[in-house]
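Run log, item B.
One chain of 652 residues. Sequence copied directly from the ordering sheet:
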Amino acid sequence: MKDGLTEIMRLKGIEMLTSLQRKALEPIYSGRSALIIAPTGSGKTEAALIPLFLRHLKDKKKSPLRGFGILYIAPLRALNRDLLRRVEEWCAKMGITVSVRHSDTPQSERTRQSIHPPEMLITTPETLQILFSGKRLKEHLRSVRSVVVDEIHELYGEDRGVQLAVALERLEELSGPVQRIGLSATVENPKEVARFLVGERERPVIIADNTPKRQELRIYPAREREDDRDLSVRHRIPPRALDALKYIKEGAQEVRKVLIFTNTRDSSEAFGSWFHNVYPDFPVEVHHGSLSRDIRTKVEESFKRGELKALICTSSMELGIDIGDVDRVYQISSPRRVERLIQRVGRSGHSLRGVSRGEIIAFSFDDILESVALIKRTEEGLLEEKRPREKPIIVLVNQILAMVLSEKSLDVGRLYALLRRSRPFRKLRFKELMEVIEFLKSLRILSYDPTGGTIRSTRRTRTYFYSNISMIPDERSYKLKDLSSGRLVGQLDEKFVASFIAPGARFILYGRVWEVVSVEEDSILISPVAGSGEIPNWVGEDIPVDFHVAQDVGRLREDLEGVARGTSSLDEVSRKWGVEEGVLKAPFEIVKKQVEEGLVVPTHRRVTVEEGNEEVIINACVGTEVAEALSKMVAGELQEEGIGGVMVEIDP
């Protein structure tokens, strides 16, 4: 192994393995399944691939490979493309063929992969499902010996992850024992995630880099400044947002490159447009999932080369896409979750010894308090605990159809045994499986033969399966094409298109203003114009707040109430929560005013109910999930009392 290791390191330009890579070398080379947990920039990918490549090259000398040898699964297509860019040259030097396959892969490349399978295939969980259906591709899966699941925390606790867990069991049934390796920067419950990865069998080794990553986290409360009032009115920018622009621009001038994270795509577009209007010479661009692949790739490369000073982005940049060194991260508003704060700030100081520097730009009372709570929990290492998904019916249906499509006839007993080997379906009862099969039979989506105990596909099976293959909630979207170049710019959700888009309408995308020229059946022709436009909105972007974070906000409110009542000082509370005194000054003034007016301050152990303007506000520090449950209970009770037209809105 030693000689091969030296050569692989030389070809990659690695002078010395990191501590994490040394820990991973022997167990992965020997075929053990593993969960690798380490901060961003610690070399997790290489920790998995170096021993895998070593063993792959050794095995290849013994007998030629006839299909895929290594599967690398990442939750985003952008991560797929980025990994290919990082390993393609390295693999070529070693004589290992590598390719990417997902929904954007051209048909010519798919055909090539089918005839000449690469030794390493990089793909997504959804595309893996399709590989089982193709005759040649299914044969190529028989030779797989190792699977790497990147950013496994993004899949754990989600329907997509359950779908992948069953797919890995299908793969193992097809090819024999498969080594499974999970990679993640943030995992609250490593043992449970490891069990999710390997199913109901021998537990994998957990390889963790326990070296704490140095972080510098601050909060900047945005202010309304009198001297900015005219500029704010002229550009139609909220005063605090204008203050944030100025603060970020000044900070960015001190360093080489910064990332500016927002929680939603519409926020990214708003700040991108504002930057372009107020500071037209400041090199900044927007990056999110509703922009075209070409634009995203162009922006990534420009940022990596240092042509851009700043990049405004959403979770599209949260994971491991290679964009070079980042000196500082700005977060617009509270990121709402500890894991997101760690992931996002971790993009700066992207090296073992680098310091991750991040600042949250907070805009309101609860925005500031939530940011304080998140930073404190981050420094204490208190991540949100994701609960595993247990027996989700939607995935069960999906996987029954996936398996019946890949085989002419499927034995129900065999199906049941395979499902129960996956962690999410380990408690599935045979009766529950049969209820789902009978339901699908009643819809004529499959046929069931009780005598032989087998199920078969029908005319409807394939259509239904491919229409519902993705576990990602789908919203119909319209493609946006630049009239002059014919190039794809991005996409808009159907809801926004229906409510706003018409010839002559102006909207913002990619931080620029566009005018609608014409609306086609599934695409919209647009042209760039000067002036202002509507900021689009996209479906499904709310980030849930954890119960414990919300409770901490309540505790902080109580501490500020204590200052207002004279039982402690603002300096003491600031030191307790680990922030500069100025951060809590504005929230304290609000609490102080409430106390002086004899109003009750809602805290972690005090729920308030306020009535006025034909609405009732229940202020409870309970987080998103409990707030949603509470809202449904209250709405249900009101309807039971005969009160109709109840509308509920949640702001955790």
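Observations after the first pass:
- The chain has a mean pLDDT of 92.
- Residues 547-621 form one domain.
Flagged for discussion on Thursday.
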